[in-house]
Write a structure and sequence with these properties.
Structural class: alpha/beta
CATH architecture of the largest domain: 3-Layer(bba) Sandwich
Distance between the termini: 48 Å
CATH topology of the largest domain: FAD/NAD(P)-binding domain
Strand content: 25-35%
Helix content: 25-40%
Oligomer: single chain
């Protein structure tokens, strides 16, 4: 009897979990949230035994679920590539891949040792598809370890490694170089933190405990952008990590047994080069009249600077919705969100709820299926279904993503592959 009771409870809970997963799956499909943004799992149903280990292992919650006795990615758009599910699967039924059959993803060719098809040039972090902060930090550390395995000394006047970018991966790689006694140069075209430094003020950042070279373990989980940046600045000060800020790389060319890296501040020679730049590269622009004005920007740093202004936000992803809703919360702000598609896709549920609430209380106006046609000093013109609307405007924030720096990579000789659901 006790065993029978346990079995009944198990079956009831299992069926309830499967109903929840099926509902999640249907809601995601109805909302068009079917395409993962980056690295994600593919489950082989012939191998999966439906044990649920992958569901429980996911740090992001119920991104995976059991449907008809098999594991499925029920909320694809919210998967951010932890990879814990694949590690937890006892049957090796899960493969981690980039892109899908419907939506390809451009990825530079990178080997298991983080080396590209150009010997001596390595890639780690977001550029290689690892946008998650924890994964990027770990890749930066590991890539530096691979570089350190090559014992050949740098040529006179050269360093062991030139690290391009001071985001999570480059930051960790710089610490790794110090730990292993390698000579290094870190160049960053903007500020510490790379893409993270440009997150909106107060944005929650999901990460996980990581071990930083020299410094030790960092026990962050969910924190704010400001707290994370403050921590990184403390690590830099405590360790003496040297970073050349506001120095942008313009070319990388072979130079004997190494490379010459040309920047806006001069040149650096290195035995190896580690690229830890972001995938966004150059912000994607609208290509309309008036876009060159100073009131047009391509990311939101501090919502409060727009208090009391008429603001147009362009885009349909999480960054656009976060920008629009954060400004809409400020008193006397007039915010319009323009998106070219008829519905939002790849948007986190919490952002969708904030958007719907802002629309409902009248603090935010949304114009779907629309395109910006002209920007002038005091107005913007937006076309929707053939009709033109002219709005008063003080600022335009374009959140349309970025263009992968493919041309730059190809100029170095790095092969860029389009992945359609492959590793």
């Amino acid at each position: 009897m006790p065993l029978a009771l346990v079995w009944v409870v198990f079956v009831v809970l299992r069926q309830r979990g499967e109903r929840t997963a099926q509902t999640q799956k249907e809601e995601a499909q109805a909302a068009g949230l079917t395409q993962p943004a980056s690295l994600h799992p593919v489950i082989d149903p012939t191998t999966c035994i439906g044990c649920g280990a992958c569901v429980r292992a996911c740090p992001e919650g119920r991104i995976l679920g059991l449907v008809n006795g098999k594991a499925e990615l029920v909320e694809p758009a919210n998967c951010i590539g932890h990879g814990a599910c694949a590690q937890a699967c006892p049957m090796d039924a899960i493969s981690l891949v980039f892109g899908t059959a419907e939506r390809g993803m451009d990825i530079p060719h990178v080997g298991p040792d983080f080396q590209t098809n150009v010997p001596g040039i390595y890639i780690a972090g977001e550029l290689g598809g690892m946008g998650l902060i924890r994964n990027a930090i770990e890749q930066g550390r590991q890539a530096l370890g691979e570089i350190a395995k090559h014992k050949a000394p740098a040529a006179p006047g050269a360093v062991d490694v030139v690290i391009v970018g001071a985001g999570p991966a480059g930051f960790a790689a710089g610490l790794g170089a110090m730990e292993k006694g390698l000579s290094y140069v870190v160049v960053e075209q903007e500020t510490l933190g790379g893409t993270v430094s440009h997150f909106p003020r107060g944005k929650l950042v999901m990460t996980a405990p990581v071990t930083l070279p020299i410094y030790g373990k960092a026990n962050f989980r969910e924190t704010t952008k400001e707290a994370l940046m403050e921590f990184w600045e403390t690590v830099v000060a405590d360790t003496g990590l040297q970073i050349n800020f506001e120095e942008r790389v313009t070319a990388i060319e072979p130079d004997g047994d190494g490379f010459e890296v040309t920047t806006t501040a001069g040149t650096h020679r290195g035995r190896a080069v580690l690229l830890t730049i972001g995938r966004r590269g150059t912000p994607r622009k609208l290509g309309v009249e008036g876009e060159e004005q100073s009131k047009v920007v391509y990311r939101l740093t501090d919502p409060e600077q727009y208090q009391g202004q008429s603001v147009l936000v362009v885009g349909g992803g999480d960054s656009a919705i976060e920008a629009a809703t954060s400004i809409a919360e400020l008193p006397q702000s007039d915010v319009t969100l323009s998106y070219r598609s008829a519905a939002f896709s790849r948007v986190k549920p919490k952002n969708r709820k904030k958007l719907e609430a802002a629309e409902a209380d009248g603090s935010l106006k949304v114009i779907l299926g629309s395109n910006v046609k002209k920007i002038d000093a005091a107005h913007v013109e937006i076309e929707q279904a053939g009709d033109m609307t002219r709005l008063s405007n003080d600022a335009v924030i374009v959140c349309a993503g970025g263009i992968l720096p493919t041309a730059f990579l190809k100029s170095i000789g790095i092969t860029v592959e389009t992945k359609h659901g492959t590793a």
